[in-house]
Task: structure prediction
Amino acid sequence: RIEIIGSAKSEAGVTTSLVSKKKRKRNDRSKGDRKPSKPRGKTDRRSDRKTRKTSTRRPKSFQPPRGKRLKAKRKNRKNFINALPELHRPLAKEVMSGSIPKLRQKLKLMDLPDGFDEPILAFAEELTRGIKSAEWLDKAEAINENIGSIDLQDFRSVVAASSNFAKSPEAISLKEKLEAGLKIRIEKELEEWIKIIKDALDEGKVVRALNFSSRPPKAGTQLPEEISKELVQQASAALNSEASPERWGIVAEAVAFSPIRLKVTPISLPSRIDEEFGKILKKHSDRFPGITTLTKE
Result:
């Protein structure tokens, strides 16, 4: 909890201190008082899990391999806290573990005189900005150490937040370095992305090509025209009467989430159609107009 040190009548010199709550003792029972566990029978849920059939369907949404996830150290945040006066650290830790709204609620419950909480909240907001800036610097330094392998999504998020938290000369310099590094990474991954799709098409792996086409390194990136045409051709050809319902459904699902979904024209439906296949058609018909056109014929 938060403890106010000093007279409640004073308008200045407010100091906050956090006093930890006493832990409630557990009323542990002795082993002899415990109820005996029930014997597990044939209906044991854990044993039932082993008998369940494993689904052979692929995940609903394809996710390409991600880069190294961001794991920032807390060096700068720790230094920021340690540089504060001893009496200010409890408030900083309170802000880190909660938020300004939660702190405001706690102060209200303390029934302080009118306006007594304002300097505390103002200082807490100042501490929050300092903590957030230190945390950003920790993340930025971690990315700088792994600039060629860090996950691109994490990379983008840290660069996007730099305008709010990169204020010191050191942070601004690092921000500029990361912005340049991000541009190089995106260009490199775009080249790799196109190569993966092209290689998949050359090997006849149309589902792999479709899946990767739906996850460009940069949102809104269009495929080169030559690759796009080949992808449309192979996807259309794969949707024929000789394909099994399972295979037809997998290709159709990949098409439905690809950037060429409006251009693919299935040759025909599978020769064998079951209820499950009908559900797949219905599920993806809105995103894949070629399905609707085919079922109306």
Observations:
- Strands lie at 2-5, 15-18.
- DSSP finds twelve helices and two strands in the chain.
- Residues 7-14, 18-26, 28-33, 40-60 have pLDDT under 50 and may be disordered.
- The first strand starts at residue 2 and ends at 5.
